[in-house]
């Protein structure tokens, strides 16, 4: 039963990915700029009717739209997304060259958000409606409302230009990673803190906590071993779901800090009308988001019998 539920959940992803590929392909093809003209301009070739006709034939743009899609989809299934109009290199190879930097930034920001949120969320729950709780909730709202690009430029001005502590931009050691990671993590800190506070308060009112206290077990042991373990479950789930969103949300941060990731590469492709790169990026990020959600669902099925019973109906 368990194996069948997992297989069924995996199979349900296939039509979603198919639908995303169709929508993405049609959206890019319906843009007002002609891909053949964009190719010629990026190749610094004079645009003429003869050159446009030749490029359309070369790129297969003279064929019916459904034939173009099927050809592109067949290549995508083989991880062949064509050649970049700008660099003239295979698109997939470029994406794999830029992806490690984005993954580094994504996972470091999630880890940083967790490290910051854990003590704040727990203390807010333990000192509910006190000064620390009100202050942490206020800071959470401010952090969630602060745009990433504003925070990024502010951190660069303060810690790079004024205090000269961190590098202004680029990828290198931990110092290069600190500011972009914090910028990307701040919005998640607000979410994680409020979620951990709420789940901790729920656990504190569970019968097992009352029984443990009645038996004379130390409060520190009750909180550290039982309450924290159960309160972290929804937070871990949310962190897993945020991996995909962080990958797509890192576009702004990567451009602010000149971080050489796929988000910055995508923006350059967008301005340059590099259609093969745009198609590959959208499909890659969407696939990662869907796969992350799939893994979280499977994780829930494994640890929570209620999810398995619900999925069986």
TrEMBL record:
InterPro entries, sorted: BPD_transp_1_N, MetI-like, Opp2B
Primary location class: membrane
Residue ranges constituting the ABC transmembrane type-1 domain according to the UniProt record: 99-296
Single GO cellular component term: plasma membrane
Membrane topology: Multi-pass membrane protein
UniProt keyword list: Cell membrane, Ion transport, Membrane, Nickel, Nickel transport, Transmembrane, Transmembrane helix, Transport
Signal peptide start and end residues: none
A molecular function (GO) term: dipeptide transmembrane transporter activity
Compartmental location: Cell membrane
Domain of life: Bacteria
Residue ranges crossing the lipid bilayer per the database entry: 12-31, 105-127, 139-161, 173-192, 278-303
Family: Belongs to the binding-protein-dependent transport system permease family.
Subunit description: The complex is composed of two ATP-binding proteins (NikD and NikE), two transmembrane proteins (NikB and NikC) and a solute-binding protein (NikA).
PANTHER family according to UniProt: DIPEPTIDE TRANSPORT SYSTEM PERMEASE PROTEIN DPPB-RELATED
Name of the protein in question: Nickel import system permease protein NikB
